[in-house]
């Protein structure tokens, strides 16, 4: 792997990790385009490292919220009153435990599903769910959580259960499933995205850390610079993408991402897999 290839993969990871287009799917498909084997140990380790860079970016974006959840770093308002967040660690646990449990017990089965063809179908299925979620959220569901602090325990659990789909089906998109699950459960688009990004930190740290235990030996003196470049590039790109996404969230609908997923799936089906 040369530096240019490493940077390309890091950019793809940073762009796709937190928006509902499936970073796993893009990494599998990009690796296929670049001619890398899906079983290459160096590639696996590199993907984990650049994913950690993306995780750090989201942790920086939500640093104050994380401190609030831990009960530290909370600043007083102008009246001297300590603001109280209704979102707590129980919400986070409800949002991550179902997916972590499934990932732990079905790890080998999930790994067997990592292929370009699986991803193509997941892109389509995930896009359909996102269109349905947006339609139902606008017309059929009463929005009870406009902001992340309004999310109930039941809604947090529902989001956590929807997240299982992305665990079992590579390419479905973790953020796509959780944002859609939130919207189908009466959570606004923005609050669903906020909660999706927040719970990504612990669940991705757990998943990436566990995988790194198997492949950390690939990080050597010869590969360290390449891994470091990828980490930094992924961090910067992910930070910018998340900030832009949250800024323009009212203009960028789930349907727009769904259409992109359909186009990407069609491209790879027609030109790569045949």
TrEMBL record:
Keywords carried by this UniProt record: Antibiotic resistance, Cell membrane, Cell shape, Cell wall biogenesis/degradation, Hydrolase, Membrane, Peptidoglycan synthesis, Transmembrane, Transmembrane helix
Catalysis: reaction(s): di-trans,octa-cis-undecaprenyl diphosphate + H2O = di-trans,octa-cis-undecaprenyl phosphate + phosphate + H(+)
Keyword presence, Cell wall biogenesis/degradation: yes
InterPro entries in alphabetical order: UppP
Coarse class of the protein's main subcellular location: membrane
EC numbers, comma separated: 3.6.1.27
GO-annotated cellular components: plasma membrane
Topology term for the membrane: Multi-pass membrane protein
Additional note from the record: Bacitracin is thought to be involved in the inhibition of peptidoglycan synthesis by sequestering undecaprenyl diphosphate, thereby reducing the pool of lipid carrier available.
Record function comment: Catalyzes the dephosphorylation of undecaprenyl diphosphate (UPP). Confers resistance to bacitracin.
UniProt-recorded name of the protein: Undecaprenyl-diphosphatase
């Amino acid at each position: 792997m040369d530096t240019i290839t490493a940077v390309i993969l890091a950019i793809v990871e940073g762009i796709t990790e937190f928006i509902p287009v499936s970073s796993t799917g893009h990494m599998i498909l990009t690796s296929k385009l670049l001619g890398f084997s899906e079983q290459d140990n160096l590639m696996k380790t590199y993907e984990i490292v650049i994913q950690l860079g993306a995780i750090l970016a989201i942790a920086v974006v939500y640093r104050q919220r994380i401190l609030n959840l831990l009960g530290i770093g909370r600043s007083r308002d102008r009246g001297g009153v300590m603001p109280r967040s209704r979102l707590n660690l129980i919400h986070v646990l409800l949002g991550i435990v179902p997916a972590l449990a499934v990932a732990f017990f079905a790890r080998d089965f999930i790994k067997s599903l990592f292929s370009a063809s699986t991803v193509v179908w997941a892109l389509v299925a995930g896009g359909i769910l996102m269109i349905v979620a947006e339609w139902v959220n606008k017309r059929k569901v009463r929005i009870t959580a406009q902001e992340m602090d309004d999310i109930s325990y039941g809604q947090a659990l529902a989001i956590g259960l929807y997240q299982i789909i992305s665990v079992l089906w590579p390419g479905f998109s973790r953020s796509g499933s959780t944002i859609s699950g939130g919207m189908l459960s009466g959570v606004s688009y923005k609050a669903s995205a906020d909660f999706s990004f927040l719970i990504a930190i612990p669940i991705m740290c757990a998943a990436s850390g566990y995988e790194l235990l198997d492949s950390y030996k690939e990080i050597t003196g010869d590969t360290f610079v390449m891994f470091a470049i990828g980490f930094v590039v992924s961090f910067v790109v992910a930070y910018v993408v998340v900030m832009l996404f949250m800024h323009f969230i009212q203009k960028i609908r789930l349907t727009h991402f769904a259409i992109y997923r359909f186009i990407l799936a069609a491209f790879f089906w027609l030109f790569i897999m045949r």
